[in-house]
Specification:
The protein contains 20 helices and 33 strands. By secondary structure, the protein is α+β, with helices and mostly antiparallel strands. Strands 2, 3, 5, 6, 9, 12, 14, 15 and 16 form a nine-stranded mixed β-sheet that branches. Bound molecules: zinc ion (ZN). The site of zinc ion has 5 residues, from loops.
Length: 634
């Protein structure tokens, strides 16, 4: 059962600054008596250079400074240390030598001379592709940037980051403006100064800045206050459609209704619209770092692809930031994170974010169902599930981000997102079934994510047993066995019970859905995946072959290139025609294939025509999924 008294000592407070300062000065007595000062200089951001000057209080003797390695929300050691450059340390006007730790690439050792009480440090961050594959690397365009503070931050190693005080400032290029969850206190020319905070909250509070910038208040009737901080590469992009602003305000209302609580003092959606920045979605307690293509919210055809981004990252303020698996609630950014419960952290957020996206009007119920069909089918045919269970994709999260498409169906990727969402749909529909529709996942959310109302940002860690206990409080059931079976299953097919209980069946159609057309239109991918087992680029290069499919049996592999189909030069439509023509016949499809400069003929023995996933209503059953997607807010 759920024991608040048991959880309470686990609460890790993000103390507000008023309560914070005496505590910090006390806790940091060994290392410092003053806060760190940091000024990030974005004036060179347009050419992918970010500078910072830091003043770090120290005591004489050996000191180890570190940068952040395990970045919250990325679930891996993605701190962009490879792009931290230009490190120069001064004390009393004299340069001091530093030496990087021989094992920990993020740590720097410095011998502080007698009489020295602070170090003056300069660093530069190169916002260019690097070996850590951090989303910070692609965080600039010529006209905007979203700076995550780990890019330029150094602080004493070995101290919990919530105990280190810091006073941040940001210098902008001429004409730029900024948005952030940090509290501005004053401006001085192009520099904005912010209220004192902690290293933990600083890393949790990115800054969006740009030449074309606009802050839009959302849901004005709601307290705490919400804002959209928008930066764009063109001035006309700032004129968002009224429907988009309306959906964001609805999202604020719907999330309040769903979680019956808020765990922030105010919330800033940071949104960078750019085709020149790397896409991103990173959650924070009081803000989120969202970067999408320039027209993600003005081009209707992109709605199915980006509609759930803001609802997903916003939901993380409750599920991921406030409630966090104990293995991910680390005291600093050097301690390795343990991701075994990411199917709760990300999987439930995926599910809730998609539902909120429909309830707020970012997506239609039809678009939701098309996206669900596609992800359910992708998981259902994925053979990697027979050697690796879902929990292993969560445990191994830190090595599964990125990577190519090649043989990804055999490797499995970060399936704890989409398959986690399927499991939470299963949980939701099972609660509804067990309680005769009197209760739903909403009741779990209120208990588990709300925990009794509004709080300032804080972390309340949980274990698997806490999840089970709260589910039992909502609807008694053997939830431990229910969840364990699903996350450790090596069954050949995905858990689709939630779809069935929702009143639908996963089927295959001979026409791609609107969702798929949006994906294919954007990426130029040729999809013969659910049919012959082939995913291709527009030029015929095979990006993946589904293990066990007709293409696999024909000996094809990724990185080979299909040059011709039945004697005709390859194109998506030519392949589609050949698949249709071979349907119901015994005649194989003849392919000319190139592999590293060598050519051969391949006979593809496939006769079932084109196949694209879809959801079909099951007659005579209640439309539970339809009920789930209805708005909750009054
Ligand atoms: Zn997420």
């Amino acid at each position: 059962m759920f024991h608040p008294a048991r959880l309470r000592p686990l609460v890790v407070a993000f103390v507000t600054i008023f309560a914070l300062l005496p505590g910090i000065f006390h806790a940091a007595a060994q290392t410092a008596t003053q806060p760190i000062l940091i000024t990030a200089d974005l004036t060179d951001a347009p050419r992918k250079l970010i500078h910072a000057n830091l003043q770090i209080p120290v005591a004489p003797g050996p000191v180890t400074l570190t940068t952040a390695k395990w970045i919250p929300g990325t679930h891996r050691p993605s701190g962009p240390i490879d792009n931290l450059t230009g490190l120069v340390v001064h004390a009393g006007g004299k340069e001091l030598p530093w030496r990087r730790d021989d094992v920990d690439m993020y740590a720097f050792h410095i011998d502080v001379p007698q009489g020295v009480t602070k170090l003056d440090i300069h660093v530069d961050f190169l916002a260019v592709a690097g070996s850590t594959v951090s989303s910070d690397d692609g965080s600039t365009s010529g006209l905007q940037t979203t700076m995550e503070w780990e890019e330029v931050l150094l602080y004493p190693a070995g101290v919990p980051v919530r105990e280190i005080a810091v006073v941040p400032s940001v210098k902008l290029p001429a004409e730029w403006k900024l948005g952030t969850a940090l509290t501005p206190t004053s401006t001085d020319g192009s520099t904005t100064h912010f209220a004192p905070t902690t290293i933990e909250m600083l890393v949790d509070s990115p800054v969006i800045a740009g030449k074309y910038f606009r802050e839009i208040p959302l849901a004005p009737d709601v307290t705490p206050k919400h804002f959209l901080d928008l930066a764009a590469d063109a001035p006309e992009d700032l004129e968002l459609k009224p429907a988009m602003i309306e959906s964001l305000s609805k999202l604020v209302h719907e999330a309040g209704a769903m979680y019956d609580s808020r765990h922030y003092n105010h919330y800033n959606f940071l949104l960078g619209l750019s085709d020149r920045e790397e896409g991103n979605g990173l959650e924070h307690h009081q803000s989120s770092d969202n970067r999408t293509p320039e027209h993600a919210y003005s081009d209707e055809s992109l709605a199915p692809l980006f509609g759930d981004l803001l609802p997903h990252e916003y939901t993380h303020s409750w599920n991921g930031k406030y409630r966090r698996p104990a293995g991910l609630a680390t005291p600093d950014y050097a301690t390795p994170m343990q991701g075994s419960l990411l199917w709760v952290y990300e999987g439930m957020t995926q599910y809730l974010g998609e539902i909120l996206s429909v309830r707020a009007g970012f997506e239609t119920p039809e678009q939701f169902k098309e996206a669900l069909a596609y992800s359910a089918a992708s998981l259902d045919v994925k053979p990697g599930r027979t050697w690796r269970d879902l929990e292993d994709t969560a445990v191994a999260s830190s090595i599964l981000r990125g990577g190519g498409r090649e043989w990804s169906n055999w490797r499995r990727g970060q399936d704890y997102y989409q398959e986690g969402a399927l499991i939470w749909l299963d949980v939701d529909t099972t609660i509804r079934k067990l309680t005769g529709d009197k209760k739903s996942l909403h009741d779990f959310c209120v208990l588990f994510l709300g925990k009794g109302g509004n709080t300032p940002p804080e972390v309340v860690p949980y274990t698997f047993d806490d999840v089970v206990a709260t589910l039992n409080q909502v609807a008694p059931n053997d939830w431990a066995a229910f969840l364990r079976e699903r996350v450790t299953s090596k069954a050949a097919h995905a858990p689709l019970e939630g779809i069935t209980q929702g009143g639908y069946a996963l089927v295959y159609s001979d026409k791609p859905s609107g969702y798929e057309r949006a994906v294919l239109g954007r990426t130029g991918v040729v999809d013969a995946y659910f049919s012959a087992g082939l995913m291709l680029r527009a030029d015929g290069t095979i990006s993946d072959v589904l293990v066990g499919s007709a293409a696999y049996k024909a000996g094809l592999g990724p990185a080979e290139k299909i040059i011709a189909v039945n004697g005709r030069a390859f194109s998506g439509p030519v392949l589609a025609l050949a698949l249709k023509a071979a349907k119901g016949t015994t005649q194989p499809i003849d392919l000319i294939v190139e592999n590293t400069g060598f050519f051969r003929i391949v006979h593809l023995d496939y006769h079932e025509g084109e196949k694209f996933p879809a959801l079909k209503r099951v007659d005579g059953t209640p439309d539970v999924l339809g009920e789930i997607l209805k708005p909750l807010a009054k």
